[in-house]
Write a structure and sequence with these properties.
mainly alpha; rod-shaped
Length: 103
């Protein structure tokens, strides 16, 4: 371990000795480069917004379809009740009463 530390220190000193103050980038240069890069890269925000819109549309369509299904089920249930013999008898009696009153 001691030899590794000694070799590492030697390499770090050699790297430090080769750097001159004139070779370094100006203060804040890296920050400006990264900021400019972030501005120019394509933004995925529009794709995420479009995905959220599709999810909302799908949720709304599901809610509307469930209400429509419930309404259709209720209507079919009422139609089945009207097809029962008691309902037909009342409808027949009602139509005969109406026919008799108009004569």
């Amino acid at each position: 371990m001691d030899r590794r530390n000694r070799d590492l220190d030697r390499l770090l000193r050699a790297a430090r000795a080769g750097v001159d103050e004139r070779d370094q980038a100006p203060f804040g240069f890296e920050t400006r480069v990264v900021a400019r890069w972030r501005d120019t890269r394509p933004q995925n925000g529009a794709a995420w917004e479009l995905g959220r819109l599709f999810r909302r549309i799908a949720l709304g369509a599901t809610i509307v379809a469930s209400f429509a299904s419930a309404g259709a089920f209720w209507q079919l249930k009422q139609n089945n009740e009207l097809d029962e013999p008691e309902a037909n008898a009342y409808a027949l009696a009602d139509s005969l009463i109406e026919a008799g009153t108009w004569q």
